[in-house]
Amino acid sequence: MGYTLAEKIIKNHIVDGEMIKGTDIGLKIDQTLTQDATGTMAYLEFEAMGVPRVKTEKSVAYIDHNTLQTGFENADDHRFIQSVCKKHGIYFSKPGNGICHQVHLERFGKPGKTLIGSDSHTPTGGGIGMLAMGAGGLDVAVAMGGGAYYITMPKMVRVNLTGKLNPWVAAKDIILEVLRIMSVKGGVGKIVEYGGEGVKTLSVPERATITNMGAELGATTSIFPSDEITLEFLKAQDRAEDWIELKPDEDAFYDEVIDIDLSTLKPMAACPHSPDNIKTIESLAGQQVDQICIGSCTNSSYRDLMTVAHILKGKTIAENVSLAIAPGSKQVFNMLALNGALGDLIASGARILESACGPCIGMGQSPNSKGISLRTFNRNFLGRSGTKDGQIFLVSPETAAASALTGVFTDPTTLGEGYKVEMPEKFLINDNMVIAPATVEEMDNIEVLRGPNIKPFPETSPLEETINATCALKVEDNITTDHIMPAGAKILPLRSNIPAISQHCFTVCDPDFPARAKELGSSIIVGGANYGQGSSREHAALAPLYLGVKAVLVKSFARIHRANLINAGILPLEFCNEEDYNKISLNDKITLPDVKSIIEKGGNVKIINETTGQEIMAKCELTDRTRAIIIAGGLLNYTKENS
Ligand code: MIC
Ligand code: SF4
Q1: In the chain, at which end, N or C, are there fewer CB atoms within 10 A of the end residue's CB?
Q2: What is the CATH number of domain 5-264?
Q3: pLDDT band at 16 (very low <50, low <70, confident <90, very high)
Q4: Whole-number pLDDT of residue 293
Q5: Which atom of ligand 2 is nearest to the CA of 361?
Q6: pLDDT tens-place string over residues 147-180
Q7: Is the minimum distance from the CB of 44 to ligand 2 under 6 angstroms?
Q8: 369, 389 in Cβ contact below 8 A?
Q9: What is the spatial distance between Cα 174 and Cα 402, in angstroms, rounded to a whole number?
C-alpha cells in the first residue's frame, strides 16, 4: 500500500512511535512560527527551558495581532519578543510586515517540511505542500529547543476536486462547501488532502485560503500537492530552489473520500455564529449590510485584493456601508501601491488598515449594534468581532466587494464577465522588515527587554492523589476558545499577564466565573462536545489553571485545546457515557478519589458527585508521555525534570 502526501512527510519526520492511526507519534519540526498574542508566553517558556539558541532550520516571530497600541503593553511585548529573537536565533518580522501565515507562505514556507506555529491557522502552509500545524506556545517552545512535536497519527481524508470554478466563484466557496459537508467537528483527528484534476486550476494563494480555513474543520491540518503551480509561485518569490515535487502514491489509502465538482459551486456565506452554518449568497441576496471587512490570513493575498480592486475600480461603495481593507502583507500592500490598485480601493471609499489581523481578532472595526458585517475572514464566533450582538457572515472577497457596492448581500456572479488576476512573474521582494538574529559570537551580549506587563508563567503543581473540587461552570457543545479566553482590543494586551487576563476567563458565558473559581481554589469545568474548538491560545488553559481549575470534564475535545490542557497540567476527562453530562450541575461538590494512581496505571477515572451521591465514569486517554506530563503538573515541569 502506498502513502498519502501527508504520510510521506510524516514518514520523513517521525522520531517517535509508528505510523499507526490513533497512536501518538513524535515529529521532528523543521520550522516554527509565533505571533505576538501567543508569542510572549511561548518565548517566556523557551527561556525557562534554558536552551541558548533555537535548533530548528528556521524560526520566525511575527508581530501581527496586537498592533493597536493604546497603552504601553503591546509595544513592550513587541520589544521583548524582538530582543529574545535577536538573542536566541529567531527571525523577527516587525509590526506592519504582515500577517504571519501570509508572510510565511510568501517568504519562508517550503514544500515537504514540517512547520508548527502558535496559531491555529498555521495549516495555511499546506497550500504550498508543507505539513503545517497549529500548536500551543509551549509545544512551539519545545520544538524550538529541538524537541519533537506529538500528534495522534491522524486518519486521512481525500477531497477530490474535479472541474473548474465558474467566474466569480472563489476558493473561499470551496472551503465553505467542505465545511458544509464536514462541519466544525468533522475534521477532528484527520488530515485533509486535496487532489484531483481541479487542483491544477488553483493558484497557491487560493490553495492557502482552503488549507487556512481547514482549521475550522477541527482538522490536524490540510495539504495540497506541490506541483508546477507551486514552483511558479516559488519562482515568483525568488525561491525556486525551495521547491520539490510532492504527490500521493497512486495506491494511497484514504479513510474518507469527498468529491467536489468545482463547476457546481455557488458563492456562499457562513452565517452567524459558526463557520459551518452555510447558505448560498443567492438565498441571502437583498438583505441590508452595515459593514464589510476584507483581509485576514484567509483572504488578503495579492490575488484577492487585485480582484477586489477590479470590482471597485471607478465606483463608489454604498452609503450605508463601512468598508475596511487590510492587505495581508507588506509585499501585497506595496505591490498594490505601485500598480495603482490601492488608489482604486481608496477612491471607492474604502478605509485602508495596516497589514495585520486587525478586525479579525476584534482589534478595532467592531460593527455597530446588531450590525450585519460581511467579512472575508475564517471565524464568526459570537462576540469575536467585539460587538456581542454583531451578525458576522464569512464570505469570499468577490462577494464582499460586490456587496460593498450595493449595500446589500449581492451574488458576485451578477457582476457579469469574469475576471482572473494574472499571477505576477515576480512578486516585489523586500525583506527589510525581517530582522535577522545575532550571530553565535554576538548573542551573549544581547539584553532581553522586559516591560512591567510581562508576568511569569503561572505556577503548576504535580497531580494530587485525590482531587476535591467544585463544579465552577457548566457549558454546552462547541465551546470555542473565544468563549474561554476572549480576545479583542481591551483584553489582548493582557496576554503576557496571566493573573490579569484570567479576570476575563469565560466571562462571555458567565461574568462571575473568574471570581467564583478563584474563591473556590479547586474546581472543575463541565462541557459538551468539541470543547475548545478554534484558536491555539494556551491562555485558554493557563487562565483556568491560574483560577484553580484541576480538571475539565466534557463529551469531547478539540485537538489543540486538549493538548494545551495537558501541557498546563489540567486533567482532560471525557464522559464514558455522554448522558452523564446531566448528572453534574453548577456548584456540585466533586471528588476524584485516587486519581493519581488511576492515571499512573491507566483506566477510567471515577468521579463522585458528593452533592447528589451519583457516580460518573470518565475516560482520560493518555500515552506514556502525556501521562508523565499530567503527573508532573504540566509540560514545563516535565521538560525540566527530563532535561
Ligand atoms: C485566532 O484567530 O483566534 C487567533 C487570534 O489567531 C488565535 C491565536 C490567539 O488567540 O492568539 C489562533 O487562531 O490560534
Ligand atoms: Fe490573525 Fe485572524 Fe488569522 Fe487569527 S484568524 S491569525 S486573528 S488574521
Answers
A1: N
A2: 3.30.499.10
A3: very high
A4: 99
A5: 7
A6: 999 999 999 999 999 999 999 999 999 999 999 9
A7: no
A8: yes
A9: 19
Longest pairwise C-alpha distance within the chain: 72
Contact in structure between 586 and 524 (CB atoms under 8 Å): no
CA of 230 to the centre of ligand 2 (A): 24
Q: Which ligand is nearest to the CA of 378?
A: 2
Q: Ligand 1 atom 7: the closest Cα is on which residue?
A: 535
Nearest CA to ligand 2 atom 1: 357
Strands 467-474 and 589-592: antiparallel
Could you tell me the pLDDT band of residue 642, with boundaries at 50, 70 and 90?
Answer: confident
How far apart CA 100 and CA 94 sit, in angstroms, is: 10
Determine contact, residues 516/544, Cβ cutoff 8 Å: no
Residues with CB under 6 A from ligand 1: 37-38, 65, 119-121, 134, 361, 379, 487, 534-537
Chosen CATH of 268-411 out of 3.30.499.10, 3.10.580.10, 3.20.20.70, 3.40.50.450: 3.30.499.10
Tell me the one-letter amino acid at 144: M
Q: Round to whole Å and give the CA distance between 540 and 236.
A: 39
Residue 280: count of CB within 10 angstroms of its CB: 15
389 contacts: CB under 8 Å, gap ≥ 6: 369, 370
Provide the 3-class DSSP secondary structure of residue 127: helix
Q: Number of C-alpha atoms within 13 angstroms, CB side, residue 373?
A: 33
Locate 620 and state its grid cell: 482520560
Architecture of domain 467-642: Alpha-Beta Barrel (3.20)
